[in-house]
Amino acid sequence: FDHQFKQALPIIDKIEEAGFEAYFVGGSVRDTLLNKPINDVDIATSAKPNEIKEIFPKTIDVGIEHGTVMVLWKDASYEITTFRTESTYQDFRRPDTVEFVRSLKEDLKRRDFTINALAMDRDGKIIDYFNGQKDLENNLIKAVGIPEERFFEDALRMMRGVRFVSQLNFSMDSETEAAIHKNHPLLEKIAVERIQVEFVKLLLGSGRKQGLELFIRTNLFYYCPGLKDSKKELEEFAKLDCVIENRIVAWVLLIHYLNKTSDDVELFLRAWKCSKKEINQVKLAMIALEHRLKNNFNRQILYQTGLQVSLDVETVMECLGYPIDFETVHKLYQELPIYSKNDMKIDGNDLQVVLNRKPGKWLGDLMTEIEATILSGELPNEKPIIVEWVSTHYTKDA
Ligand code: ATP
Ligand code: MG
């Protein structure tokens, strides 16, 4: 029994003492059987949300309309979801309303893949109505029930399927694959944000090659932002043989293979609904990569890119098969005289006083020039010296 399950046992016991059923379900059961570390422990129960709230003193309503209550218990939190079916599907998306049921089997039946439709009771006994354990042994992603129906109910499951192929390094059952191939246009109905979550997990998985090949073979890529016309490039990208360690590295490698210009990068990532912060990081990384493919890192590029993203760029270089040197990046970065404008020992007010001039465009330009000169090492970052430099230098230019 994993430590996290042990910690959650009192929760199951309390629900059972109140006269209801409760089981561990979903990813945690699957990952335990695979001897993998588990993320979060999810619990399914025959108790309704209000019944759960009566049992536990501390709860948070995280998705009560879907039957999910979060229970806070000894520094940890658990999502407890009432057994449910999703009988009325519309628009190929998960329904807004759900129907609560009292049977575990009904609940497991509406889950996406057999390996995700396993439950475990408080004694560690596995409940397996859909041969999930056999598929786990055979490393197989197989839809619960009739694949096509399941993808009609919720088209996101097609992306989840290829994601699990990559994440678990599994293969896909042929009938399940055929159903995705046939119904791939249904993906168009799904919110990009939800597709992105699965796509990024696909890119970060250890079986990325298999996952991407399946993603291409089933034509799922066709309904993902900015990929429609890039089958050839995606195929090349799929051949790449390295573990991708984070989201920035993933996007940069993908964009590199797609041959996007720096103008395209923003549009591409916006279409994928990436956050502003992530878009900025990837843009900086692309500029740094372009430089890095021709030269080593220098102070300016490092300063502009920041340490973390620079290291990501170095990781990208490694994936692309170039010789790399993380230590030099660290060392160069440590030697930078400043890390941002805030570190400069002079500010706009000082400059206005020194030059006795009203603020204007000149001020920003001058700050930028001083910044670059400090960065290059030509000007020490000390106020009197900067003032001296400005008074001689600036009058000359003006
Ligand atoms: P991860 O380790 O990435 O969290 P997971 O299997 O726990 O994987 P979740 O998205 O956390 O994935 O979902 C938890 C469980 O809920 C799944 O194991 C599956 O049983 C069920 N589930 C999630 N999304 C769907 C879906 N779109 N259709 C059907 N069942 C789903
Ligand atoms: Mg999970």
Automatic annotation (TrEMBL):
Residues that, per the record, bind Mg(2+): 40, 42
The residues listed in the UniProt record as binding ATP, with positions renumbered to this chain, are 27, 30, 111, 154, 157, 160, 163
Q: Which GO terms describe its biological process?
A: RNA repair; tRNA 3'-terminal CCA addition
Q: What is this protein called?
A: CCA-adding enzyme
Q: Where is the CCA-adding enzyme C-terminal domain?
A: 245-390
The UniProt family comment states:
Belongs to the tRNA nucleotidyltransferase/poly(A) polymerase family. Bacterial CCA-adding enzyme type 3 subfamily.
Reactions catalysed, as given in the entry: a tRNA with a 3' CCA end + 2 CTP + ATP = a tRNA with a 3' CCACCA end + 3 diphosphate; a tRNA precursor + 2 CTP + ATP = a tRNA with a 3' CCA end + 3 diphosphate
- Which coenzymes or cofactors are required? Mg(2+)
Q: Which UniProt keywords apply?
A: ATP-binding, Magnesium, Metal-binding, Nucleotide-binding, Nucleotidyltransferase, RNA repair, RNA-binding, Transferase, tRNA processing
Q: How does it assemble?
A: Homodimer.
Q: What else is known?
A: A single active site specifically recognizes both ATP and CTP and is responsible for their addition.
Q: What class of enzyme is it?
A: transferase
State the protein's purpose. Answer: Catalyzes the addition and repair of the essential 3'-terminal CCA sequence in tRNAs without using a nucleic acid template. Adds these three nucleotides in the order of C, C, and A to the tRNA nucleotide-73, using CTP and ATP as substrates and producing inorganic pyrophosphate. tRNA 3'-terminal CCA addition is required both for tRNA processing and repair. Also involved in tRNA surveillance by mediating tandem CCA addition to generate a CCACCA at the 3' terminus of unstable tRNAs. While stable tRNAs receive only 3'-terminal CCA, unstable tRNAs are marked with CCACCA and rapidly degraded.
Query: Binding of CTP: at which residues?
Result: 27, 30, 111, 154, 157, 160, 163
| A GO MF term | CCA tRNA nucleotidyltransferase activity
Source superkingdom: Bacteria
Domain Poly A polymerase head positions = 22-141
User: What residues does the tRNA nucleotidyltransferase/poly(A) polymerase RNA and SrmB- binding domain cover?
Assistant: 169-228
Q: Where does the record place a coiled coil?
A: none
EC assignment: the record states 2.7.7.72
